[in-house]
Amino acid sequence: MSATTPESRAASAGRPGIDPRGPRFSAAITSVLLLAVVVLGVGGLDVAALVLLVILAALFAWGAIAGVARHPFGLLYRALVRPRLAPPAELEDPRPPTFAQLVGLVVTATGVVLGMLGVAAAVPIAAAAAFFAAFLNAAFGYCLGCQLYLLLVRARVIRAA
């Protein structure tokens, strides 16, 4: 008999889902790294802050393109944290958190581009904006990007698949 996860059971039932604790775990790691960018950028270590923001932008791109289930922090959660927890009460649609990764990419990439153009203050400002959103998700389970996704779907600006 093969072991099944809630994701595989949901997918086999025609409704894909993710453990909602995974994106919160990812947001916690991301918020710590973004706070480091803010501290480095404000502290005058502009190059180190920019490099770390480039890495974070790449991670956001990974999540936006491959989806949150294949994001490195999501894989880390599933391998190390989830086996020690009870199964989730319910699964979450992966589209809003994936869209939130796209929003994070836009914010951090804007900081990277402006930072490379010589606007040093853009790096910690972009990191602070992204930190705010990541911290809200990690600490309170409130995903700003997810809410933006739902708002855009309701306004019919984007279609829910």
From TrEMBL:
The chain crosses the membrane at residues 25-43, 49-69, 102-123, 129-152. Pfam families: DUF4395 (PF14340). The keyword Transmembrane helix applies. Residues 18-154 form the DUF4395 domain. Keywords: Membrane, Transmembrane, Transmembrane helix. Coiled coil: none annotated. It comes from the Bacteria. This is DUF4395 domain-containing protein. It comes from Agromyces binzhouensis.
